[in-house]
């Protein structure tokens, strides 16, 4: 009887330690992506800065050169917008966070959901550039029926680099 209680206490303590470790990993992973709301105005440029030094330990070890941006774009409802990325290797999508992302092609019209345009951007930068303070720079260009509507500059930095 006495041994059963000791085993139960050890199992309970182990369960608590595992839960604490999982919570720590989850809090580290919350820094592996960037959420930003952006208001697009015609013929204006907005800057979005991503700091890779804020990534969690697990991400830095496994996949430090890939970063995900979840952008929520507010734009004039009168315009049907398309989007293209350049300057950085990026994968654009309007998929949900949980499903498989379907690639957003330059000719695809952006779909609005709940008053904003969700765009998921997966950035991939070269490993060698991770040691630099200014890692990469690119842009998301938004086009309407008349041409370039607006632009979002994406700056990828490492604030801990020398």
Question: Which strand-content bin applies to the residues?
Answer: 35-45%
Spans of at least 5 consecutive residues whose pLDDT stays below 50 are none
Q: If you compute it from the alpha carbons, what radius of gyration comes out, rounded to the nearest whole angstrom?
A: 21 Å
Mean pLDDT: 84
Shape: elongated
Helix content bin: 10-25%
Largest sheet: 4 strands, mixed
- Helix and strand content put the structural class at alpha/beta
User: Helical segment tally?
Assistant: 2
> Order of SSEs, N→C?
HEEHEEEEEE
N-C termini distance: 61 Å
Strand order of the largest sheet: 1-3-6-5
Tally of extended strands?
8
What do these coordinates show?
With 162 residues, this protein is an alpha/beta fold. The protein has helices spanning 2-29, 57-62; strands at 33-39, 45-51, 66-74, 82-86, 89-93, 117-124, 134-144, 147-157. It has a 4-stranded mixed β-sheet with strand order 1-3-6-5, with no helix packed on it. Strands 2-8-7-4 form a 4-stranded mixed β-sheet, with no helix packed on it. Strand 7 (134-144) and strand 8 form a beta hairpin. The mean pLDDT is 84.
Considering the chains and any ligands shown, give keywords for the structure.
162 residues, alpha/beta, four-stranded mixed beta sheet, 21% helix
Question: How do the strands and helices of this protein lay out in sequence?
Answer:
Elements (H helix, E strand, L loop, with lengths): L1 H28 L3 E7 L5 E7 L5 H6 L3 E9 L7 E5 L2 E5 L23 E8 L9 E11 L2 E11 L5
Parallel strand pairs: 1-3, 2-8
Antiparallel strand pairs: 3-6, 4-7, 5-6, 7-8
């Amino acid at each position: 009887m006495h041994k059963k209680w000791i085993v139960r206490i050890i199992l309970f303590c182990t369960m608590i330690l595992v839960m604490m470790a999982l919570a720590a990993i989850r809090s580290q992973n919350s820094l592996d992506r960037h959420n930003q709301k952006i208001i697009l105005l015609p013929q204006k440029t907005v800057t979005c800065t991503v700091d890779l030094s804020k990534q969690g330990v697990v991400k830095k070890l496994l996949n430090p050169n890939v970063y995900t941006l979840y952008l929520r774009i507010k734009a004039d409802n009168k315009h049907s917008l398309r989007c293209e990325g350049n300057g950085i290797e990026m994968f654009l999508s309007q998929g949900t966070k949980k499903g498989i992302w379907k690639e957003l092609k330059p000719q695809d019209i952006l779909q609005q959901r709940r008053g904003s345009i969700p765009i998921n951007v997966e950035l991939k930068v070269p490993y060698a550039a991770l040691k630099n303070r200014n890692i990469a720079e690119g842009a998301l260009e938004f086009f309407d029926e008349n041409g370039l509507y607006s632009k979002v500059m994406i700056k990828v930095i490492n604030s801990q680099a020398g």
